[in-house]
Amino acid sequence: MSGSSSITAMKKVVQQLRLEAGLNRVKVSQAAEDLKQFCLQNAQHDPLLTGVSSSTNPFRPWKVCSFL
Length: 68
What we know:
It is a single chain. The protein is mainly α. It contains three helices and no strands. The termini are far apart. G proteins are composed of 3 units; alpha, beta and gamma. Keywords: Cell membrane, Lipoprotein, Membrane, Methylation, Prenylation, Transducer. It holds the Pfam family G-gamma.
């Protein structure tokens, strides 16, 4: 019984390895360059780089009512 379960497990491993071997891979240097280009192209839309105007900032501190 344990011999057949071991064979089944090994077949699953071989199937997974074949699947992974068939994937197209991108070199790390190319992926880094693509990421750099993406960041540079979208930098003007990044609120962490450009800031958020106080009128549209949902996290701005609320003013205290002076009538009380």
